[in-house]
Amino acid sequence: MTILLGEILVYISIFIGLYFATFVFSTVFEYKDEIYYKPKRKFYPKVSLIIPCYNEEKNISKTLQSILNLDYPRENLEIIVVDDGSIDKTLAIAQEFAKKDNRIEVFHKENGGKYTALNFAIEKSQNPFVGTVDADSFLQKDSIKKIMEQFEEPQIMAVISTVRIANPKTIFEGVQYVEYLMGSLYRKAFAFLNSVSVVPGPLSVFNKKVFSKIGLYKKAHQTEDFEFALRMQKANLKIAYAIDAIVYTQGCRTFMELLRQRLRWNRGFLLNVKDYPELLNLRKHGNLAFLLITSVFGCFMAVVLFIYGAYRFFNLLYLRFNQLMLAKADFFRFSFNWPDWTKVDITPVFFLGACAFVVFFAYVFFSKKYTKDSGPSKRNVVFYLVIFPFINSIFWIITFWSVMFKRKEIIWE
Fold first, then answer.
1. Residue 357 lies in a domain
2. How many CB atoms lie within 10 A of CB 265?
3. pTM of the model as a whole
């Protein structure tokens, strides 16, 4: 009975995954001529880039230098750095930059969280457009131009960018590189359908009218960029995606760093969706509701299939061990029957799994093509295939446990 139920869950999961992928590919190919925005005129209005900081002495110099190197009219760019109570040299480094370039303004406030630093700077800004930049992110030279061009369409209230992992060196950074790369494809698909569900912290730009319409950032379970996008969607404010506007961010180098980050992200995702249940209404928010429901289902199935897989694995070991004990086998002389181990049964699950592999490589190929990415390395692709499904399931198990037992939220990073 358990095995039958498990097989049913596997079939359902693969079917939903393939259906989602077909939906993404069909949408992208339908709008393939609109992948890159084609501006009708040069539109480079005044914009304020906000950098909230907390203990970023290792990264703030590179972040500021990347902004100063932007290919954007100098007189139309303002840079606002908000030090949110750092206890390292972040403030001093930012102040040194401000002495050399009058476009940079540096403010210091007591620690209150990233959302308070963003709101502080938004209220200080005098420009009609406001962008947020994480203090560990580095902008490609033409990224702001690519983003601002899209604002010539008056209905667009926010534009997001493509986030890449900068110089992946560890296994976990390589896994994130592939994950971020593939995410760009389905994010572009849902941007065409007015269903973007996050305004990433590394680089997003807003028409300042947004904040007067729906308010400033909220604490939002430490995921203010996700909550703000949901609030914009609730108000029917359009979010565009400049897939060729690239920003690099620091990846998590170790498993514990990645666990801490994903626990915060996953908790924020579940709790923010819970706060906006009306967005799950398929009749009113069809495409966005489909994305959110599919995402929640995928999180749940990742946990269920991981538990089922672990059960099957340990149950098999137990049965084999018992058989060997009953047969009084000599463990030190035990040898494998290689024909049995290498035999492949062409079952429906095997066929669907093969289709899933084809879809995965299609994701990688088209994501590379449309983001004009020279990576990832073959090694990172292999690491992603082998490691990510396993660790992602672990992350979601811990997340569900954390949410159900109301564990304390992750602090400001």
1. no
2. 19
3. 0.87
